[in-house]
Fold:
Amino acid sequence: MLEPLRQGLPPLDPAAVSNAASCALPARYEAVREARQFTRRTLDQWDIGERFDDVCLVVSELVTNALRHGLPLPHRNSSAEGRRGGPCDQDHARVSEQTPPVRLHLMRWTERLVCAVRDPSHDSPVAQDSDDFSAESGRGLFLVDSFADSWGWHPLAGTLNGKVVWALFRLPHEPQPSPAE
Structure:
């Protein structure tokens, strides 16, 4: 997962990842809410909740795009049958027999946070040009570009099919305490 993610990003040492979490998302639009809740819990645990608003907006847009454009037609708009607890619940222990169609990854380095959404499509994300400022859709990648410090996408390699769309957020530098003399 990290290999395609590193391409095009500022130099990041995978061994220096201080925290990582991921969440399988079902192929339904309610998954956007589950992704936001997972993001809130994760950022709070990592003590970087002050970036929640920007990160949450970007996560919402990336997950919405994956569900809307990254799934084959039979998976889009599928119902929420069969399970009460969401797949992002920390108590969720069942492993799906099939790879979930969409997965959210959050990775934290000392001064960076990367949000990455994986989906099965090989199509590149395309920002839509629209002069209609009242349109309810079509501005997702514009918002990602506006709120993240950088973003991009890469096809997945190896046994994983599809692509990953990522957004990078710079985190405030916390000064290290100087050793007592």
Q: What stands out?
A: The mean pLDDT is 76. The chain is about 25% helix and 20% strand. The beta strands are 19-25, 102-108, 112-119, 150-155, 163-170.
